Amino acid sequence: MTSRNAAATRQRILEHARRQFARHGYTAITVKGVADAAGVSPNLITRYFGGKDGLFLAATQVEIPVTTSFDGDRSALGKRLAASIVERWFGEPGEDPLLVLQRASGERPEAAEALAEFLDTNSLEPLHHYLRDSGLGEAEARNRAAAIDAFVLGVSTRRRVLRAELGDRADLEVWLGATIQRLADG
């Protein structure tokens, strides 16, 4: 097997694992089920990932390019963040590693900790710094960032984790943008 085929096989396994973990959570998923869906032997999952825990960790590596949402004036922050959020929610149905972490956080303490750490590092802190750098005092910037973070996580949990419909994409983006902006402006 060439390294290119190994890389493609590993990626195919991860795609199927993300989809299954996102739809069913951690507990319901088996190595054999992911292997069958990916068309590989369960031994390959053990070889590449060390088993179910390693597969879960690899499937939940999350990247969110939030820094681009912080380019520009605070008066349009809500619109920029909402566009980024809605793009993610509609762009990766059933395969979003962040959704996998959200769903697994109730089952696995390490998933809850990974989600909290990820959100602190990639959402809350950059937002806090952006708001502070846009002229707000330290405490006010921290409070507004925490409010935005909690609001977005709550909407995400309600609409994605609890499997309610996301609704109309355009309407959702406008509503999120306006609400985030109100929180940013105080």
Describe the structure.
InterPro entries: Homeodomain-like_sf (IPR009057), HTH-type_TetR-like_transc_reg (IPR050109), HTH_TetR (IPR001647), Tet_transcr_reg_TetR-rel_C_sf (IPR036271), TetR_C_16 (IPR041678). It comes from Amycolatopsis heterodermiae. The chain has 186 residues and is an all-alpha fold. The protein has 2 domains: 3-59, Homeodomain-like (Arc Repressor Mutant, subunit A, Orthogonal Bundle), CATH 1.10.10; 66-185, no CATH class. Helices cover 73% and strands 0% of the residues. The protein has helices at residues 3-24, 31-38, 42-49, 52-59, 77-91, 97-104, 109-133, 138-161, 169-185. Helix 6 (97-104) packs across helix 7. The mean pLDDT is 86.
Q: What is the topology?
A:
Blueprint: H1 3-24, H2 31-38, H3 42-49, H4 52-59, H5 77-91, H6 97-104, H7 109-133, H8 138-161, H9 169-185
Helix pairs in contact: 1-2, 1-4, 1-6, 2-3, 3-4, 5-9, 6-7, 7-8, 8-9
Structural class: mainly alpha
Mean pLDDT: 86
Q: What is the 3D form?
A: elongated
* Number of discrete domains: 2
Radius of gyration: 18 Å
Could you give the order of the helices and strands? HHHHHHHHH
Which segments are poorly predicted (pLDDT under 50) over 5 or more consecutive residues?
none
Number of helices: 9
Number of strands: 0
Intertermini distance: 58 Å
- Determine the strand fraction and express it as a percent band: under 5%
Helix percentage: over 70%
The profile of the biggest β sheet is:
none
